[in-house]
Design a protein that fits this description.
mainly alpha, two-stranded antiparallel sheet
Amino acid sequence: MSAFSEIAIVLTISFVLTALLTGAIRLYAISRGMLDRPGGRTSHTLPTPRGGGLAVTLMVTVIFIGGWLLGERADSSAFESLAIVVLVAFAVAAVGFWDDHGHVRSGIRLLIHLVAGLTLTLCLPDFAVYVLTFNVAAGVLGICLLTLLTAWYINLFNFMDGIDGIAGLEAMFVFAGYGALAYAFGDSELVLPALCVLVSVAGFLLWNFPRARIFMGDAGSGFLGVLIMGFLFTLSGAEENLFWAGLILSGVFIVDASVTLLQRLARAEPVYQAHRTHAYQYAARHFDSHVIVTLAVLGLNVLWLLPMAWVAARGWLPGWLMLLLSYAPLLVLTLRFNAGRAEPQK
């Protein structure tokens, strides 16, 4: 059997098993009353079970750790780094699944996310991130910045998981982009792991888009948030510009969540209080459709952010400048859709 056939079999099994496992978790969630109910701070109209992202967590963890321990590439530094990333992501997902069952205090969640960010920063190989001539990833400053970036990304990925399919399709796009960047500019050993995540998320999406029969929940969003940042750090070790390119791929989520947070902080609102004032949530109500908004985000990703990430990776312009150029129209768009503004009183 050729290597291509073996890879195709692994990816197919990942997709099918994730889909089946998501269905089983849906039945479990219903039996345990793990339901998100409609209300003034949600974007759905029917009670829907949550926690389906656990299927992605379990499948990816088994594939990565099993492949690293048993595979021929167990001595690969890239695979060793990804094994660390998956273990950290699994720990965050465990806390998230606990939260899906009930409630974990926001302070505990934030502490876990900061520890996860610090672990990735300290345990993964060093890499350089230059703004002009200054390496912002070096020394104590670099440790603090990367730790905070990771903790923020974990949270924002959870915040942006608020309408059908948006987080799943975002994850698929980001990992497709990581795979393309790794193949063209970085470490080709990262291509297959990125594809494994992509197809596992696709298996979950069978249940989550175009109509959500189960939500991802904190077990999935936390896991994918850590995984996206861990892949980014690993990818950045191959080529400096890939750090900026990877951040560009996540532009829609980063800009919407960041603008919304700043707006809420300016009004002194509790930032961990449930709300539906992200730009994508306002857009979903404006168009009266989750599908339109989710596909529009995918279109922005493919038609705008992917080419900008490619230019950044090529090094034709400084990576930080490409980041600002790629985020600028997204900032205008999020403000156009009232990101973070209080809902009008009825």
